[in-house]
Design goal:
The protein is mainly α and about 140 residues long. The protein has two domains: about 45 residues, no CATH class; about 70 residues. Helix content is about 45%, strand content about 5%. The protein has five helices and two strands, in the order αββαααα. It has a two-stranded antiparallel ribbon with strand order 1-2. The longest helix has 25 residues. This is TM2 domain-containing protein. Keywords: Membrane, Transmembrane, Transmembrane helix.
């Protein structure tokens, strides 16, 4: 190997003054108000919603976790209450109104089928929604 090839092999790792310029071979360091991007690993500001390098939205830590069991129990007691607990007020009110309609439909017997189906689905939905909120897949 010639001396020119040896010299050119260390040039990318060091700057003109011989110091490491951080372009290759070194890991990025983060400051106290910085974090690593969940996708590309570059250092970004802690409060950044989107990484400026790769454009991926950063997952925020949820400060309030929802208890799926409590959400299901609330919907068990009153259809729609579990959705309200999860922060989905409109959805919860929709379930409550639907159950009132189902009570009226009991007079024509179809409510005997639709009432328990809506009730069971409300319990299931409240539980699954609380799990998704805790996983960060949806926001309350």
């Amino acid at each position: 190997m010639s001396s020119e090839e040896e010299v050119s092999s260390d040039t990318p790792e060091t700057g003109s003054d011989g110091s490491d310029d951080g372009s290759t071979g070194s890991s990025p360091t983060k400051g106290p108000d910085e974090v690593f991007c969940s996708s590309c690993g570059n250092v970004i500001k802690e409060d950044a919603e989107i990484c400026p390098d790769c454009g991926v939205r950063q997952k925020r830590a949820t400060t309030v976790e929802k208890n799926p069991g409590l959400a299901a129990a609330a919907s068990f007691l009153w259809t729609g209450l579990g959705q309200v607990y999860n922060g989905q007020i409109g959805k919860g009110i929709g379930f409550i109104v639907l159950q009132m309609v189902n009570v009226l439909l009991m007079f024509v017997l179809i409510g005997l089928i639709t009432f328990p189906l809506t009730w069971i689905y409300g319990i299931y939905d409240a539980y699954k929604t609380a799990e998704k909120i805790n996983e960060g897949k949806i926001e309350p």
